[in-house]
Amino acid sequence: MTQSFQRIGIIGGGAWGTALALVLQRAGRQALLWAREAEVVLSVNTRHENNFFLPGIELTAQIRATNNLSDLAACDAVLLVTPTQYTRVTCKQFAKGSGSHKPPIIICAKGLEAKTGKLLTEIVSEELPDRPVAVLSGPSFAIEVARDKPAALTLAVEDKQLGAAIAQGFSSRHFRLYHTPDIIGAQIGGAIKNVMAVACGITAGFRMGDNARAAIITRGLAEMMRFGAALGGRSETLMGLSGLGDLVLTCSSVQSRNMSLGMALGQGTILADILAKRAGVTEGVFTAAAAAALARKHNIEMPICTAVDAVLNRGATLEDTIEQLLSRPLKAESDWSAPT
Known about the structure:
Elements: E1 7-11, H1 15-26, E2 30-34, H2 38-47, E3 64-66, E4 77-80, H3 87-97, E5 105-107, H4 120-127, E6 133-137, H5 142-146, E7 151-156, H6 160-170, E8 175-180, H7 183-205, H8 210-231, H9 235-238, H10 241-250, H11 257-266, H12 271-276, H13 283-298, H14 303-313, H15 318-326
Parallel strand pairs: 1-2, 1-4, 2-3, 4-5, 5-6, 7-8
Antiparallel strand pairs: 6-7
Helix pairs in contact: 3-4, 7-8, 7-10, 7-11, 7-13, 7-14, 8-10, 13-14, 14-15
């Protein structure tokens, strides 16, 4: 029997969670948005706008917000949109009030857990066991999705029937979902592209030119493919929307928090000062450390990820790090597809 999705809970009241509430409303679904911040809940319910994370976008009165996670327990599905580093603690809190009902969890965040290097599906399976899990990922700036600009994303879920039901329930004229069973590959693309966006931002801040950015994107894709092969992702997934598509978008616009952070670094701003001025989380900072650690553990050659981690988390200077990258031995381009 095909599962029907009508009432959808969204855990995470940031820009992307709010944009997804609008996506669901356009698809004819009821969206209940959970936000940690009482100010966000008040703004959504009284002003019909997320004035803190997505200002200027009008929300319908049908989109409601709450700061009580247990209100989402009876929903037909739950979108998990909290920043990666807060996913585990949020899942623990949700588990306490969710009762026996176990709706599918659709992961909409991107990154690796800094302390463990684990994928989000691993975290969810540990904290919310025995629940169907899907991953929604791909090139999708929240503001454009909120404004109903066309977007196409990857929906990764092993159960084809569940995937078809989610795609049918969430899609609309300007929001298209393409199914894959490769939940590992979809997560790897979304995580590693954030690190590459920081690198591209640094090249922009250093005024190294568009050629350098193109090189970062291309060689960054090679690192993404090696990383994916080592962890069990499929190459075709990483060449798709959740891999190459998201990589190109995030590395090409200062709308990306990760690229704008890298640009500020390249212009000489101290990392702590950049982060202090931001309301949202810049996932590439945490994912760089986790990805570099996994690369060392699995003997995967990831020089760009390692370089970004060195700059962000290990006190390396930009000048020395760039010089080391440019001084690497020349090699064949065709060895990108396998771990080293």
